Fold this sequence. Notes:
Rossmann fold, 9 strands
Amino acid sequence: MENKYFFISYKKEISDIQKLCNQIKESNWIDKDTYIVNCSPDYTSTLSVHLNHKLSYLNDNQLYDRLDLEMPYPIMNQIYNYDQKRYQTYDQYLKYWAEKNIESGSKYLFLDSGTIRGFNFEKLRLSIRGLMEPDQYRFGTLYREKNSIFKPDFFVEEYDFKNQGGLLFEWENSDNPNWNY
């Protein structure tokens, strides 16, 4: 049986990054004290870099400080902590990451290319809720599966796994078993 995909071409991805940038800009939420958090760097770095450059004019033409935050594949519950050179559960890793990176008075824009099930973003939101006020963080994604348990503050398009299939970017390996659920 062949997998069905909600396919994102290079052209669509770049166009949708601009749409997401416009949403974030129009919200008037982002400011000079904002960190851009690149969640799932192996999938989100293109979004993070483009958004950072496109919105830099809001920061005196300087790039925003950027942080990477690893997130587990759907079939995994551990993350490799490069600082500690060992695997940790996602909950342990989030606690470590937050203690190391969250600064009082700063804002955090958490980005991921897609919100598929929403479990990673929901755990992240619960982890930072006691460390920051709600106006200090936002979540953004290009694509959100309509049945995801998490609804980001900013997103470009919803898709339906049941009718359209799993999310697949043109640059991605469609045979990767970590994404086939």
